[in-house]
Structure formats: structure tokens, C-alpha cells
Amino acid sequence: MTKKQSPIKNILSKGKPVIKLLETLINYGEYMGLYESQRLCDFFGIYRVVRIELTNRCNLRCLMCPRTGIEGSNAGDIDFDFFKGIIDNIARFVDSRTIIRLYGVGEPLMYPRLSDAIEYTKTKCPHSLIQIATNGTLLDEECSKMLIRLLDRTDWLLLSINAGSKNTYRWLAGADRYDLVVNNIKNFLSIRKKLGRGLKPGVDIQILETKKTEPEIKEFKEFWKPLIGLNDNISVWSVINWGGKIDRDDFHVRHTGDRYPCLRLWTTICIDKDGNVYPCGAGLASGKNNELFLGNLHEKSFMDFHLQKAKLREMHLEGRWDYNPICSACDMWTHCPNIWIKNNGRFNFHIPDNLPPVFMYP
Ligand code: SF4
Ligand code: SF4
To answer: Which ligand 2 atom minimizes the distance to the CA of 286?
Structure first.
């Protein structure tokens, strides 16, 4: 005698083909989502921006810096052999579209082996661009000559003056070095001109847009414009909040519109001086106790990190940035272009012809 099947099981068994079809459609939907995400990875290459922290030491204490207040026992420099290992590893993932940023949260000109680091990067990743962001306080003649000699026309020196007067500089940087920095940069520009090496590297002279510096921006631009070359830049940045770490009334709120996925999850990888890896500077500035910590380079490979980032990308494509407090509080996504179209609660992308260059994303 055969056992009688329960009515519910009976319905389910009859519905099996329907359930299978639904499962297939769901899987296909997920596959298409991953495929879309992968297409964007392909567009940017595995790593479009690789940020390596040479040191997290700094000689300033800026109000808008995520390292101010978190420094202390862990302040120091990257081990040079370890740095070489990182460059050896990334060399096979990078190409002429890749930007290698030789700075994290700290002043890279304080790194004693900066010239070796640049030379090694140039040897192993000859087609990639190098970017160095500096506060300019240590940009003396010797350092200027070294940077001009080693960097190429396509490389960038980002000169963060951030203020347009001694007063606002003191307020922002916590030190009276405005004149020193302005003179250092003027000297750098004149040495670069004298050496006549095709105005290399390019420079981006930066001022921050805050309630106090805003009235100085016009004059700042007028002052620097006659001193720079055709390929150089003067840029005005609003303060980023580094995943909610920086929150002051006298800084501007950058964006009040609808949120969209953060493009850094497709473009960027950040490595701190100890080999800890994050998808973005906000993660790097927040340390290891957060969900943006992807692991340590001593234990995992670059491909592992790339795959691990797929989960974070998926959260953003679904608009679920609240899944971790840093992404949730962060405003750095506003500095990346909005290439997104929302469809049924999910973001798809469309790359516009006039996509701003990736080097402009902080
Ligand atoms: S110079 Fe740069 S690293 Fe140093 S405190 Fe200022 S923002 Fe931070
Ligand atoms: S939103 Fe902020 S914390 Fe999140 S990935 Fe982008 S930069 Fe990082």
C-alpha cells in the first residue's frame, strides 16, 4: 500500500517546475546584476586607483583630517621591502589607466625613502600614473628637484594649501606655515620652469571651500593662475567627512540630493602602512574594526580583495549603504560622478562621454 502524500506536499510537488522556473529567473537576475557590476569593473580595470600609505606621520594637525585625533602609538612608516612587495604584486594588475597614489593619511614627503619608492614604482609599473598629495611644508629645493627628476609629465603633485590667507591657514592647519608653503610652491614652479623638462610633473594647487575660506577663493585663483602651466590645475574642494569622522558647522555640506552608489567600490583599493586593505580612504582612516576592512596583504592576495569587494558593490547597487555605519554616514560618494540610473530599486550604470577623470576623485 503506498503512503498517501499530504495535500501541501502534493501542491508543492506539482508546482516544482514553476518553482524551478522562478529559481532560474532569480538566479538569472542575480547573474545579470553581477554581470553588470563586472562590466563596470572591466571598464575601470581591476584597479584604477591604488593608494599606498607610505607614512601616517604628519607635521600638521588639520581640522579636516581624519588622522588628527587617531594618531599615537601606531604612527610610523611603511617598511620599504614590504612596499616593494606590494608594487611587485600590483604590477600585473595595473596599466596605463591606473593611478598609483603614494600617500594615505599622512605627509608622504616625511617618508625617508620617498625617492626610492617613486623609482621602484616607475620601474615596475612604468605605464601607470603616480600621484602624490603633499601639504608642501617640506617641499624644499632638494625635494623639488628630486620630484621633478623622477616624476613624468602625466604624474601629478597635489599641493594642498587649502587656505588663501595666513589666518585661515592657521585655523585649518593648526600651524603658522602659510608663507613657507606658498614660497615652497612658488620655488617648485620656478625650478620646474628653469629645468625646462616639459613642465613635469603636473600640479594641482588646492584650496578648500569652507565658510571661512570661501571669500578667499577668487583671489587664490588669481594669485596662482599666472604661475602655473597650461596642463596644471587650481582646484576648489569641499571638505569630505571621511565616513562621518569630520563634522563641523563651519564646513560646507556638499550634497543634499539623492544618494547613489560610491564609484570607489569599482575603482579603488587603499593599503595602509601595515598592509591592511580597504576599498576607500574612509575605510583606511577608520582602521580595522569596520566592515570595510578587507584583510591584510600578508594573508590575502589582490585578487581576493577584488572578489571580496563584490559584496560591498552589491550592497550599493541595491541602495543598502546603511549596512555599515561608515558608508551610511559618509559623504565621499558625492565626489564621484553620478553615472547611475535607478530601476526597480536597483542601480544600473550608464557611462557618459564626458566622465570626469578618475584622478579627480579623492
Ligand atoms: S597635512 Fe594632510 S595628512 Fe597632515 S594633518 Fe593635514 S590633511 Fe592630515
Ligand atoms: S561611501 Fe564612503 S565609506 Fe562607503 S565606499 Fe564610498 S568612500 Fe568608502
So the answer is: 3
